[in-house]
Design a protein that fits this description.
The chain is an all-alpha fold. It contains 16 helices and two strands. It has helices spanning about 5, 15-30, 40-50, 60-70, 80-95, 110-115, 120-135, 150-160, 165-175, 185-210, 215-240, 245, 255, 260-265, 270-285, 295-300, and strands spanning about 105, 110. A hairpin with a 2-residue loop joins strand 1 (about 105) and strand 2 (about 110). The structure holds geranylgeranyl diphosphate.
């Protein structure tokens, strides 16, 4: 039995493979970013502060795991993994701004606008979003890397996930729903777009760049949608019963901001049951990938046990 199989999933972050992949991802991001002392230093310092300021690196891990599931070389998708983490980091920096959630802490450290001021934090988010696409185009420079056509497909995929029909659409619905009771369909739209879209794009990106066929891509898309919902339900649960010192930011923010969540809709116990159901369905959609899909399987099991 492989390492991914026989360890409890709460150990996901101590798996040798997770450690190795996180190291590769950090190196890829480090290599991609301009040095901190490049002119004008304020922007490069702010960008590095948020990118290197912790985080689980879940989306880049999904990129690498999807590449592995379809028999690709995870090292050849590292620039895409780094680019997607840049986009995720931009979304966190902007989400924390006074005009959005107005949060003082993220990943256990003061938020970008608290350290660098609001203007630089806005620009750091903008810089990360645009730079991500520059980094994505570099994938076709890698010897033995994916062909340019696949890279263009992925650029479209990631742009859609980050844009108006993806993360931005979800965030708009989130903001406009504050203080209101929203129905299950609106809540579903909000989460599939705000959080789910980039998770889906991460998995599809790893798979497309590694030459997945249509059937593999369909199954992984199914995996990604179930994974995204399990992840978001757990996020809502952790905002109620999580440990602030583990999460790295204050809990209870959804209630304070009068947000509708899966927990406010179903209650904690039902939310936990549904998260477990989505995680199971994600694992089920890996049938047919054999041992290559085991790591994605352990990620889907981890997601409902996570504490941060
Ligand atoms: C474009 C401003 C803007 C927002 C888009 C994604 C998003 C909407 C906002 C991010 C804020 C947020 C707390 C979303 C809920 C789920 C989520 C993305 C949690 C954080 O992701 P993790 O747990 O974080 O992967 P780490 O720190 O581990 O990278």
């Amino acid at each position: 039995m492989s390492e991914a199989d026989d360890r409890p999933c709460s150990d996901f972050f101590s798996l040798d493979k997770t450690r190795e992949y996180q190291k590769l991802i950090t190196e890829a991001m480090e290599e991609a970013l301009p040095p901190e002392d490049r002119f004008p230093p304020a922007i490069h310092q702010a960008v590095r502060y948020s990118v290197m300021g912790g985080g689980k690196r879940l989306r880049p891990l999904l990129v690498l795991a999807a590449a592995e599931a379809v028999g690709g070389n995870p090292r050849l998708v590292l620039p895409a993994a780094a680019a997607i983490e840049f986009i995720h980091t931009y979304s966190l920096v902007h989400d924390d701004l006074p005009a959005m959630d107005n949060d003082d802490f993220r990943r256990g450290i003061p938020t970008s606008h608290k350290v660098f001021g609001e203007a630089i934090a806005i620009l750091a988010g903008d810089a990360l979003l645009t730079y991500a696409f520059e980094v994505l185009t570099r994938i076709s420079d890698l010897p033995g890397g994916p062909p340019a056509l696949e890279v263009i497909r992925v650029i479209r995929e990631v742009a859609q996930a980050a844009g108006m029909d993806g993360m931005i659409g979800g965030q708009v619905v989130d903001i406009q729903s504050e203080g209101k009771q929203i129905g299950p369909q609106t809540l579903d739209y909000m989460h599939r777009h705000k959080t789910g879209a980039l998770i889906r794009a991460s998995i599809r990106t790893g798979a497309i760049l590694s030459g997945a066929d249509l059937e593999q891509l369909d199954r992984l898309t199914d995996y990604s949608e179930n994974f995204g919902l399990a992840f978001q339900i757990m996020d809502d649960i952790l905002d109620v019963i999580g440990d602030e010192s583990v999460i790295g930011k204050p809990v209870g923010s959804d209630q304070r901001n009068q947000k509708s969540t899966f927990v406010s809709q179903w209650g904690i116990e039902e939310a936990k049951k549904r998260a477990a159901g989505y995680s199971r369905r994600a694992v089920d959609s890996l049938a047919g990938f054999g041992p290559r899909g085991e790591y994605l399987g352990s990620l889907a099991r981890y997601v409902i046990e996570r504490k941060n």
